[in-house]
Amino acid sequence: MYAIIENGNKQYKVVEGDVVKFEKLDAEVGASVEFNALLVSDENGIKVGKDAEAFKVTGEVVKQDKLKKVIVFKYKAKKNERKKKGHRQPFTSVKITAIASK
After folding, report:
1. Which residues contact 43 (CB under 8 A, 6 or more apart)?
2. Which stretch of DSSP H or E encloses residue 89?
3. Three-class SS state of 82
4. Could you read off the pLDDT of 15-55 as tens digits, one per residue?
Protein backbone atom coordinates (compact mmCIF):
# COMPACT_ATOMS: atom_id res chain seq x y z
CA MET A 1 0.00 0.00 0.00
CA TYR A 2 1.30 3.44 -0.89
CA ALA A 3 -0.05 6.98 -0.94
CA ILE A 4 0.71 10.27 -2.65
CA ILE A 5 0.63 13.16 -0.16
CA GLU A 6 1.09 16.90 -0.53
CA ASN A 7 3.13 19.22 1.67
CA GLY A 8 4.48 22.65 0.78
CA ASN A 9 3.19 22.50 -2.81
CA LYS A 10 5.23 19.33 -3.36
CA GLN A 11 3.95 15.78 -3.71
CA TYR A 12 5.60 12.74 -2.17
CA LYS A 13 5.07 9.00 -2.66
CA VAL A 14 5.13 7.32 0.75
CA VAL A 15 4.87 3.78 2.10
CA GLU A 16 4.49 2.78 5.75
CA GLY A 17 7.92 2.74 7.39
CA ASP A 18 9.51 5.27 5.00
CA VAL A 19 11.52 8.20 6.33
CA VAL A 20 10.80 11.26 4.18
CA LYS A 21 12.52 14.68 4.24
CA PHE A 22 9.96 17.50 4.07
CA GLU A 23 10.49 21.23 4.09
CA LYS A 24 10.71 22.43 7.67
CA LEU A 25 7.55 21.73 9.70
CA ASP A 26 6.58 23.42 12.95
CA ALA A 27 6.64 20.28 15.08
CA GLU A 28 8.83 18.97 17.89
CA VAL A 29 10.86 15.79 17.57
CA GLY A 30 8.62 12.86 18.53
CA ALA A 31 5.41 14.72 17.66
CA SER A 32 2.77 13.15 15.43
CA VAL A 33 1.82 14.86 12.14
CA GLU A 34 -1.00 14.15 9.69
CA PHE A 35 -1.15 14.61 5.92
CA ASN A 36 -4.02 14.46 3.45
CA ALA A 37 -3.81 11.79 0.79
CA LEU A 38 -4.23 12.74 -2.87
CA LEU A 39 -3.99 9.14 -4.13
CA VAL A 40 -4.05 5.79 -2.32
CA SER A 41 -3.18 2.45 -3.84
CA ASP A 42 -4.05 -0.73 -1.94
CA GLU A 43 -5.14 -4.31 -2.67
CA ASN A 44 -8.55 -3.03 -3.86
CA GLY A 45 -7.07 -0.71 -6.50
CA ILE A 46 -6.31 2.98 -6.83
CA LYS A 47 -8.40 5.64 -5.13
CA VAL A 48 -8.26 9.33 -6.09
CA GLY A 49 -10.33 12.44 -5.44
CA LYS A 50 -13.21 11.98 -2.98
CA ASP A 51 -12.26 8.34 -2.35
CA ALA A 52 -8.69 9.30 -1.38
CA GLU A 53 -9.93 12.06 0.95
CA ALA A 54 -11.27 9.30 3.21
CA PHE A 55 -7.65 8.34 4.02
CA LYS A 56 -5.11 10.08 6.22
CA VAL A 57 -1.38 9.51 6.48
CA THR A 58 0.21 9.85 9.90
CA GLY A 59 3.87 10.16 10.72
CA GLU A 60 6.27 10.83 13.56
CA VAL A 61 8.90 13.58 13.45
CA VAL A 62 12.32 11.95 13.66
CA LYS A 63 14.59 15.01 13.46
CA GLN A 64 14.92 18.68 12.51
CA ASP A 65 18.13 19.44 10.63
CA LYS A 66 19.74 21.29 7.72
CA LEU A 67 20.95 19.93 4.39
CA LYS A 68 24.52 20.15 3.15
CA LYS A 69 25.69 23.68 2.29
CA VAL A 70 25.19 24.85 -1.29
CA ILE A 71 27.67 27.45 -2.51
CA VAL A 72 26.51 30.13 -4.95
CA PHE A 73 29.40 31.99 -6.61
CA LYS A 74 28.74 34.83 -9.03
CA TYR A 75 31.42 36.77 -10.86
CA LYS A 76 31.94 38.99 -13.86
CA ALA A 77 35.06 38.36 -15.88
CA LYS A 78 37.68 41.11 -15.99
CA LYS A 79 35.66 43.36 -13.63
CA ASN A 80 36.95 42.16 -10.22
CA GLU A 81 33.34 41.62 -9.19
CA ARG A 82 32.76 38.48 -7.10
CA LYS A 83 29.98 37.35 -4.73
CA LYS A 84 30.10 34.14 -2.72
CA LYS A 85 27.05 33.01 -0.77
CA GLY A 86 26.18 29.81 1.03
CA HIS A 87 22.80 28.33 1.91
CA ARG A 88 21.68 25.42 4.10
CA GLN A 89 18.04 24.43 3.59
CA PRO A 90 16.28 23.35 6.81
CA PHE A 91 14.24 20.14 6.67
CA THR A 92 12.19 17.81 8.85
CA SER A 93 12.55 14.03 8.69
CA VAL A 94 9.24 12.22 9.20
CA LYS A 95 8.78 8.47 9.59
CA ILE A 96 5.46 7.36 8.08
CA THR A 97 3.65 5.25 10.68
CA ALA A 98 0.22 4.60 9.12
CA ILE A 99 -1.91 4.99 6.02
CA ALA A 100 -5.47 4.45 7.18
CA SER A 101 -9.04 5.52 6.49
CA LYS A 102 -10.44 8.27 8.73
Report:
1. 1
2. none
3. strand
4. 999 999 999 999 999 999 999 999 999 888 999 989 999 99
Residue 62 in contact with residue 18, Cβ under 8 Å? no
Nearest to 98 by CA among 34, 30, 52: 34
Indicate the burial class of 96 (C-beta count within 10 angstroms; 0-12, 13-18, 19 or more).
buried
Amino acid type, 76: K
**Residue type at 96?**
I
Pair type for strands 70-76 and 32-42: unpaired
pTM of the model: 0.83
Residue boundaries of the structural domains of the chain: 2-63+91-101
User: How far is Cα 39 from Cα 35, in angstroms, rounded to an integer?
Assistant: 12
